[in-house]
Amino acid sequence: MTEIPEHLLERSKARRAALGLLKEGETASSTTPVKASDAAATPAAAAAPAARAAAAPAPVAIKAPEPVPPYVAAALARKKMPFWVVPILLFLPIWMILYVGTLERPPAATTGMLAAGATEYSGKCASCHGAAGGGGVGRQLNNGEVLATFPNAADHVWWVINGSAGVGVGSPYGNPDRPGGQHVAAGGMASWAATLSAKDLLSAVYYERIRLGGSTEEAEVGLKALFDSPDLPANFTAGMTAADVAALISAAETAAGVTPAAS
pLDDT by residue (tens digit) across 179-198? Predict the structure, then answer.
């Protein structure tokens, strides 16, 4: 073991005293011999706190959280959609397509002569022949029945003008080759010559043939020509024959320059 000279020990103590590193009970003038190993450890021990102090990290400033916007807070607080709703929402487009497919198309708009005929039919004819022409007290008109009885429009107009009285009860009328047999007057059909104007009567027949019977406006062009003719009388006369009506329709077609409808 090596002895450290006294003057060096005194100098070390003085230095430690200046730095405030003397141990409890130790004075700067102490002559207690110090081993070389202790003397070497003393500066290292003094340097350790300084090194730790230098290596200590600076405190990290914690940033305060930013306030949550009101719309974000509202979205977070809003109730979430239940999981069972998802398949329902996925099925909705398919359901809508199926539903729309079950809807019926609205009937074609009725205008002009057809509109006038619909009004006359509902007010004067539907009570006997049914709102849709299905029959009742009077004959069935829909599903082609009226056209089977009166393939010629002039015969149809003549029948509405004169009614059962025009042929007499028990007498046949209309198409003799009608499928199922020719109709026979039962006495229930009234004469409308004095009740309806010529235009109203024509419009009712026009409506019955097209909307109920299934004919077309092209096929009934003669009725339309007579309806629009300036030579149309205000009223038809009871007792007119089918030939008289046919002559009026033919003259109106000629004046209007339209092709006569096939009989």
Answer: 999 999 998 899 999 999 99
